Amino acid sequence: MQTADDDVILKALAHPARRAMLAWLKQPEQHFPDQRHPVDMGICAGQFERCGLSQSSVSTHLSTLAAAGLITPQRVGQWVFYKRNENAIAAFVARIAGI
User: Fold this and answer.
1) How far is CA 49 from CA 3, 74, 75, in A?
2) Domain 4-97: CATH architecture, name and number where available
3) Crossing angle for the helix pair 4-13 and 16-26, nearest 10 degrees?
4) What is the pLDDT of residues 12-68, one digit of tens each?
5) Domains in the chain: boundaries
6) β-strands 71-76, 79-84: how paired?
């Protein structure tokens, strides 16, 4: 059965830029080789400007993914780093597979 949380996730996945961001985070070493910090910290929000969107649009997309629980933010000083939430993604995929 679909939950309200699944609706939030589906809305988050509806935008192609957010799907691309999730895909890039799956292999951060490949997609963000120029990041100065170790990728195991996550990917700095500024790195996502590669998708051709403004900083405010990137921030909105990242916030939407975080609100859906698909990524987790971690603030380090003035920067915010993002990682995929693999447990939440796997649980969502399992629920959807059962529909």
Assistant:
1) 32, 18, 18
2) Orthogonal Bundle (1.10)
3) 90
4) 999 999 999 999 999 998 888 888 888 888 999 988 877 788 889 999 999 999 999
5) 4-97
6) antiparallel
